[in-house]
Amino acid sequence: MVTKISRLFKTNIAILIILYFLSSSIFATDIIRFGKVIMPIVIVILWITNIYINKLSIKKTDAVILFLFGLYFIFAVLSTFTSIDKIITFSEISGLIIMFLISFCIIPYYIDTENKYMEFIILINKILTLLLLLSVAIGYNNPGLTYTNYGNRLRYKSILTNSNALGSYAMLGGISSLSLIYLKGEKRYFIPLIFNLSLLYLSDSRTSLYTLIIFTIIIVGFYFSSKGKSFKLLMKILKAFSIIAVSILLLVLLFNIENISFVKINSILSGRAELWLSPFEGFTASQVLFGKGSNRSFINPHNYYIKSIMSWGLVSTVIFIIIMAYLLIDIIKKIKKTDNNVRLYITLSIYISFLAFSFFESMFFNIGNLASMVLWIHLGLSLNLTKE
């Protein structure tokens, strides 16, 4: 019975990943978009049904996380009162609640050992590699379809709607490949890694590329630390690297201050600086505090925190930042207590790299994005899965 449930769950996850991918492609239809919305609900219903039929107990979730997320959702709901489109706002909040349930309650229910975690990463890697290979093959004879000229940058997008979407999936493929190289020690996973790196290069998706680079630096550091060096030494190296990088950046800015203009900075950030300065025009004080809900007329600021303040308000965003800090501290504490827990190393590497990602994209905590789903599943497992 347990084996069948596990297979059913893996099938549901596989279908969900495929729907995520297809909804970002030229083959996206209303049925596919509806399937992407309804599939997480199906996973929740199957979980509840299984618990009820088999009279199983629900795994306890960290009380602090439950309390903080409860507060977060309560204040997010307040944004519906000032929202122009209350239905979309309510549906997005419902999606965030479902994502919380999947990440912190449902996934730990099915993935309760390190071996099952490895199976989960293998599943993600296989499906993403297959989907990306098929997308390249389908678009091979349609160069006009698969390339886009954006800002005088010829960018490959395969059959996806834009190059950044391709970069995001290639980034996840690279992360899962590197994770499996570390988990299983098998060189064959270098093949999908090279494939994903090639797609990242062709897509010219800088944010996804930098995110993968940060993940690689951290996970390689963990690999060498597990070979004899201490975790404390690794953290000191990361801190020193961060301080040196910031210092170099400040020095470059200081000695080139006369040559620096907003236009240049905005150009380096692919137009994001302009977006970050303008989103709150027309907001009242109460709307800044409690948000204006989800609104399709909002300009995407390409920054999760600005988007969060716009939608759910400053109060909810501060609570969310507290949640992030709590999870980060919890992971680091567990790494210090456990001996060579590769899964926690991967989780912390994903977390830190995606934190950087969140300053340049708006999908850090969003059920509509696969990268966000992968991150929060790892965070949910970090609280529940600590040993074999």
Characterization of this structure:
This protein has 16 helices and 2 strands. It has 388 residues and is mainly alpha-helical. Strands 1-2 form a two-stranded antiparallel sheet. A hairpin with a 2-residue loop joins strand 1 and strand 2. It starts with a helix and ends with a helix. The N terminus is likely disordered.
Give the helices and strands, then pairings.
Layout: H1 2-23, H2 30-53, H3 63-78, H4 86-110, H5 114-138, H6 143-146, E1 147-150, E2 153-156, H7 163-184, H8 190-203, H9 206-226, H10 231-255, H11 262-268, H12 272-277, H13 285-290, H14 304-337, H15 342-358, H16 370-384
Antiparallel strand pairs: 1-2
Helix pairs in contact: 1-2, 1-5, 2-4, 3-4, 3-14, 4-16, 5-7, 7-8, 7-9, 7-15, 9-10, 9-15, 14-15, 15-16
With helices defined by DSSP (H or I, 4 residues minimum), what is the helix count? 16
Number of strands: 2
- Describe the main β-sheet briefly: 2 strands, antiparallel
Q: Outline the low-pLDDT stretches.
A: 1-5
Q: What is the compact description of this entry?
A:
The chain has about 400 residues and is mainly α.
